[in-house]
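Example 3.2
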Amino acid sequence: MNDDRTFSSERFLKELPELDTDTRAFRRLLEHHRQNVVGALRRAVYETTGRVRLKAAHILLELGDPEGNAVLLDGIASDDPELRKLALFFVAFLPWKRDEDGYPSCLDKAAVFAAIAPLTADEPLVRTILERLGTEEADRRVAGLIDHKDPAVRVEVAKWLALRGEDRGTLAVVEEFVFDESLPKYSHLLSNVTDALQYLCERGDGDARQRACRLAMDFVRSRLDDNDNYIANYVWHCLKGIAKVAPAEEPELLQAVIASGLPWWVRGIALRLMFVWSPSVTRVHPLCTNRQNTRD
């Protein structure tokens, strides 16, 4: 790679196919030669083809330069399925922050939505882009997949909706799978539905939040005798959601977890959660009483 003192466009373009932008060396290069790097990338989108051209466009957008838009849009419209898939990948995995501005502001979101509109929304890369665009039209397309024939798609959309604090069919999908004992203990379906319960407890409102809390509590009760770390992880997510709602039955449930056959670490989390409640409540279990007396 070019060093801090000199910059060669030819060398940069030669190294571009294997360039990793998430490195200290690249960040240092930008500190000293940002204008030259952007110039070389602009040159690449006109002088190269295929993967290298798409990658140059992707990096331009990463750096806040809108000149990368047209190249990736052309890639999405390509008749070459491999080129189209690569363009979708480079759009899908642009820098994105859920709780901030989402994709870089230089991305032409309206044009991207129009480009992927003819494509099938349940294709993973297309769905990722739709989920991250943050526009009303994109959100409607994703939410419409809640009734998809593929259980994995339904559950992933349910989790996406729950992260937004929305039910819109999420709880119906959760109920479909959360008590399905035929699922393996390590299951993306089970992981996603318990995540969805946690998020709805934390971010939902009104009846959806209360219903999610009840389902989470029922799931925990159904797994008290399961000494499996995967199941313990699902229980932990449920406990985090339940703690946000803080129902009156929570101390009793925590006591049951502490005395359960679940792995020690999730029972320890339940013990810690007991101390969120008043000292009179923590005396419902001897371990809590002893810990409280020791602390005092």
